[in-house]
Amino acid sequence: MIPRIHKRGSETIGLIRYLYGPGTHEEHVDPHLVAAFDPLTPDPGRNPSATYKQLERLLDQPVNALPAGRRPKKHVWHLSVRASPEDPILSDDDWAAIARRMVSATGIALDGDDQACRWAAVRHADDHIHIIATLVRDDGRRPRLHNEARRAQAEARLIEADYGLRRVTPGDGTAAKRPTSAERHKAERRGQQRTSREELRETVRRSVAGAASEEEFFERLASAGLLIRRGIAPSGDTLGYTVALPGDRNAKGEPVFYSGSKLAPDLSLPRIRERWAQTSDDVTQQPALPPVTEPASARRRATAAAWQALLVIDHANDGMIAAQIAATGEVLDALAQTSAAHTRQELRAAAAAFERASRSHVRAARGHDRALRQAARNLVHSGPALGRGEDGATAAMAIDMLIFLAIAAATWHAKKQHAQQAEAAHRAAEHLRAAYQAAAEHPMALLHQRGARLAPAWQRHHATAVRQALPELADRILAEPGWPALAATLAEAQTAGRNPTTLLTQAAARRELDTAEHVSDVLVWRLRLMAGLPADPQNAQGRRATGKHVVASPERTAQTETRTIKSSARRP
Fold it and tell me: Residue 59, Cβ neighbours under 10 Å: how many?
């Protein structure tokens, strides 16, 4: 059940007409009162002799009784309460009881207070009601409405339990502001799937992903085609900003601007500036890396940064963990906007879902997230990736690691009782899994074919390495469909002069594998990253064609060693 407090108004009659009217798309059916401050309140929906004016006069009577100078300018209070789509249809009596609980919980009309504000609850659909109230009590005083939105949410959670309704995840005040009903209706009239507020939030989020300075951030906003206004102090410093879509105009034909803080709490300019902070450790300990110019290289570095972030989440303090999670959102935004067509939809959905997981009341210790923010920057500046070859394979590698990062974020949020954030991170992980399937299908199929063609002796050799390095997971790995691909990767690693058993041990030691859906897939990408192998198997095939790093079979190696020992024994 979702309660929502709307903007306060100045005309009671206007809201009454809307509640009893047909709606913007004839969606209002049988509008009628289900409850009110007085059982004798006239109902224009069911009583033919009752009028909107009568209801307005009755609700506004305490307001009009005040001297004109003492009347509040915005005296109309409006709360809607909506059930979830899967909830059963409640009766009028149920909605009446819910309305009384809501006006009491919010402070509009406490139980037993005969001088409380006047209110009425109108139902014009099966799944919700609207409560209208006037913000002057019968004794002429104003109601105490401190934190009424939070109290309405708390009461909704109790109502869900009492009525057996779907339990909505409680919020903590850090979510982005939802579009208003007017914004949604405007988008519907224009045939748009999303409101201007939602479009702007995504564009601003993408513009800040990996940006290294304030000027670069504003340049990206301009390049995205947004209208920008900066608030400038007398000193010339920028105090804040607002943005608008060029085609979004109000009734006067003027652009509709939104400040960053109205899009999301972490998109205000002061909060964005925190992303460019650096700690002394960050400056002295981070090695200088060559610039990234290729999408595949950017994805490899993003994978490495995500792996390092997992270790931070496992062992660091809350502020540093919050910074890693927030920066993960930037990496997802950057990956989504540079992804190939066959993964783009799921990656955008993952980034949109994780946006909620990137904020909580734990303040991020910015500066410790430099590696992930640099990874996001690399992704943006390296440009769009192709769907096949090294670009596509490294995309699968990066997405595979980001799945672990999303799960780690969900686990941390759950421990902190951040219910909405944990749920959002889990949703993001599901979208990432879908994106991974699309990205990994081709390279994993090639590796599978190569592994299936390995000589039985080599397959037994690599299976032995798995059993030695990962005895508890070996049976599971060898039974997975991805085992041939892992065997092919172990063969390539050995060809490159790396010890497969050592690589497997290191890959498992750096992070647990129990939460992996397919352990063999995870090991394929970890080993290829650690051993410096091309992500695309065709690149590896081309390298072997040059004749470098040829390794004999295990049996031939053993025979050679035996002959060498015998030869040495015959020497004088």
Answer: 25
